[in-house]
Amino acid sequence: MLNHIQSTTTLHNGVKMPWLGLGVFKVEDGEEVGNSVKAALEAGYRSIDTAAIYGNEEGVGKAIAESGVPREELFITTKVWNADHGYEETLAAFDASMKKLGLDYLDLYLIHWPLPSQGKSPETWKALEKLYKDGRVRAIGVSNFKVHHLEEIIADAEITPMVNQVEYHPRFNQQELHDFCKAHKIQLEAWSPLMQGGLLDDPILIDIAAKYNKSTAQIIIRWDMQTGVVTIPKSVKPHRIAENADVFDFELSPEDMDKINALNKDQRMFADPDEFDRV
């Protein structure tokens, strides 16, 4: 049920993951990320998504420690960066992230990009499987993986990824990928769900928002969840963080869902995972 800020989906290993979380991409370490995380936790969020490359794991960890929220209520995600692909490198990167976060265990660890130019994703995945088997992380997954990247992982894996976090918004709904993930019980998760604000002035979304007395951002976030996609909108403004979470007191009609689905243009805003090889 999608009726509460702490509503969860169940991953294929039985772990419960909140439908809504706070993303902290490009949020400065220290006071800015600390204030954002604290504002989210005070608003009822229980999922925080960071990454090694964001450079703010320490600030996230400090805010968690100071929040007073019991660790078992939280769902914390971080990601291994491209420069650390490989078995031993990934294990070392995980240790470094955990030290910065100040946590005894992680809820979700992701391979940040498939990095096909290196061809190390299967090796990196083996490290994630070890971390999972050792009980250091409750769930493992990937980020920015297309269907063929997932197929490569699954062909050699003991454990199928539990999550795939990708660019996902009404103009880029990745239907083929979504169908593949559903077929393999991989939870799709949306980053940049608001298209970095590029969708907020869309006239169709504005009309739908007026009908429900909601903002366009709230309509998009609700659409994400009703399509079965976990979402992690980013903000550093406490009022916006709270507003983004005010999406559990209404439900989009099938007709309005269809209108939003029809906005798809296969319009990717960010790097193509087949071409992105930054380390």
> Ends: how far apart?
40 Å
- Share of helix among residues? 25-40%
Assigned CATH superfamily? NADP-dependent oxidoreductase domain
Query: Average pLDDT value?
Result: 97
CATH topology: TIM Barrel
Indicate the CATH class.
Answer: Alpha Beta
Overall morphology: globular
Instruction: Tell me the fraction of residues in β-strands, as a range.
Output: 5-15%
- How many individual helices? 10
The side-by-side strand order for the widest beta sheet comes to 3-4-5-6-7-8-9-10
Q: Provide the number of structural domains.
A: 1
Tell me the number of strands.
Answer: 10
Low-confidence stretches: none
Word description of this protein:
- With 279 residues, the protein is of the alpha/beta class.
- The protein has a single domain, classed as NADP-dependent oxidoreductase domain (TIM Barrel), CATH 3.20.20.100.
- The protein has ten helices and ten strands.
- The strands form two sheets. An eight-stranded parallel β-sheet has the order 3-4-5-6-7-8-9-10.
- A hairpin with a 5-residue loop joins β1 and β2.
- α1 crosses α2 (57-67), α2 crosses α3 (87-101) and α3 (87-101) crosses α4 (121-133).
- The mean pLDDT is 97.
- Keywords: NADP, Oxidoreductase.
- This is Aldo/keto reductase.
- One of its GO terms (molecular function) is oxidoreductase activity, acting on the CH-OH group of donors, NAD or NADP as acceptor.
